[in-house]
Amino acid sequence: MEAAAAMRKASSQASLSDPDDFDLTRLLNHKPRINVERQRSFDDRSLSELSLSGAGTGSRGGWGYGGAGGGMENYESMYSPGGGLRSYCGTPTSSTRLSFEPHPLVGEAWDALRRSLVSFRGQPLGTIAAVDHSAGEALNYDQVFVRDFVPSALAFLMNGEPEVVRNFLLKTLLLQGWEKRIDRFKLGEGAMPASFKVLKDPKRGVDKLVADFGESAIGRVAPVDSGFWWIIILRAYTKSTGDATLAETPMCQKGIRLIMNQCLAEGFDTFPTLLCADGCCMIDRRMGVYGYPIEIQALFFMALRCALLMLRPDAEGKEIMERIVTRLAALSYHVRSYFWLDFQQLNDIYRFKTEEYSHTAVNKFNVNPESIPDWLFDFMPTRGGYFVGNVSPARMDFRWFALGNCVAILASLATPDQASAIMDLIEERWEELVGEMPVKICYPAIEGHEWQIVTGCDPKNTRWSYHNGGSWPVLLWLLTAACIKTGRLKIARRAIELTEARLARDGWPEYYDGKLGRYIGKQARKFQTWSIAGYLVAKMMLEDPSHLGMISLEDKAMKPVLRRSASWTV
Ligand code: GLC
Description:
Structural class: alpha+beta
Oligomer: single chain
Largest sheet: 4 strands, antiparallel
Bound molecules: alpha-D-glucopyranose
C-alpha cells in the first residue's frame, strides 16, 4: 500500500489500536500521549491468547510489574557466584509467577547476565560486552556498548527491574553532551557513543567514565545506530514502566532533539534513506555496508517513530516533529518500494532496461541485470521475500541481513504482506538463514576476490565467519519478536530449541562459524552478554507475548496480522 493511502487508513482505525500507535494526522495538533496505561492493547491480548493456545504457557495477565524495582537496589546481592542456589532476586520475576518449571538454562543465564553488570558510583549502569576471562586481550569487550545493552535492557525491563535501564539512559545522555573529536575534527552534537567504560580508581575512591564515539574504535567507525537504539530503549522503558516522566525531562527531550537534528540534517541527498560509512552498525568493520544499509534504515525508521511518540510539541519540539512526519512518509515509501525483493521483483529486475533517462524510468537506479549474483536465482523461493541490504545508484546489495529485516517488521516499516513474506522466506530457506544455530547475520558470505575487495582482506571476516555469514545467537530475540508480531510462533520455538541445545554448553559464544553455524566462532568471545540476554528476552517474550509491546510499533494501516498461518509455522 502506498504511504499516503496507508496513512489515510491509519487515521480511520484509531479505535482498534494502542494509544501510542502510528497516527500521523493527530500528531501535529495534539500533545503526543506517552502511554502511561499498563493495560494490554487489542494486539497484546490477541498475542497472549495465541501463545496460550500454542505453547501451553501462562500469561501474567497485563502489564503489571508488581515489585518493579522493589528490593532491586543492590545488584551485587542478586548475583550468586558459583551458580549455586540463586537468591530470590536472581530468580526471574516472570518465571516465579508461572506454574511450570522454567528451562534450567534460564537461571544460569540470569546469573551470567548479572555478572556482566557494571556499576558507577554504586549504581548499576549497564552490562559489559563479554565476561570472558579465558580470552587474551579484552580489547573493548570490557566496555558497555550501547547496541549490546539493548537485549540486557529489555531483559531487565521484562523482569521488572528498570533501575539499571534508567541509569544507563541518563548516563549516556551526559556522554552525548561531551565534546567529541577525532584528531582535529569535531563530531556532530547528537552523536552517541558506541561504548563506554567505567574506570575504577580504588585509591581516590572515584569512578570515572571514558567513552568511545569512534575515535578509538578499530577502523574509527561511527556508531550511527547508537542514537537510534538509545531512543528505542527510552521508549521501551516508558512503555514498560508506564513512567513518562523520564522521557519528558528537558534533558531527554534535548537528547532526542539532538539525535533527530543530526539524522534529519539536509544535505545533497536524493533519497530519504540515511547515507552511512562502512562499519556504522552491528557490523562494525568493513563489510560493504556503506551507502544505505537496511539495518540503519530500519533503525532510523523505528527511532523516528519512537521520537515522535515521546517529543513534546513545544516551541522546540514541534518543528522537529513536522520534519519527522514528512521523513517517515518518504522513507517508508522508498524502502517498501525499492528495497523489497521477491520472486516477481527479481524477475522484473532481471528484465530491466538500463540507461533510461527522465521521470518515466522504470529502472530508476540504473541497476544492471548482470549485477544480480548467481546464488540469488536459486535462493529466491516462489513464496517469500525480503528487504535487500542496500540500494544506491547502479548498486543493489542483494544480501539478506537479519537485523534490518526483523527491525523492519517490528517498526512496521514492512507492510503486513511484506512482514509475512519475510517470515515465509525464513521458513523456506531455514538451512541457509537459521541452520544449526540461529541466526545468520547475513546471507550469503562473500569469498575469494570479492572478499578481498569488499572487506580489505579482513582475516576476521573470512567466509562464513563473524560478520561475513556468521551466526549470531543475539539475533534470536529479534527473530522471536518478529515471529510473535507476525503470529509465526512455531518458527520462534524451533529457533529457541536449537539455541538451547548448544548455547550454554558452548559457554554462550558471541558467534558461530560455518555454512550451518555449527562451529563456535574462530575468535568468538565466551560469555558474550548479548548472547545471554538475547536468549532470556526470547524466552520471556514467548512466555508472555505482551512484552512485545515494548519493542514493537503497530501501524494502524496494518490489518491484525495474528491470523493463523496456513503453513507449518503455527
Ligand atoms: C563486535 C560486534 C559489535 C559489538 C561488539 C561488542 O565488534 O561487531 O556489533 O557491539 O563486538 O560486543
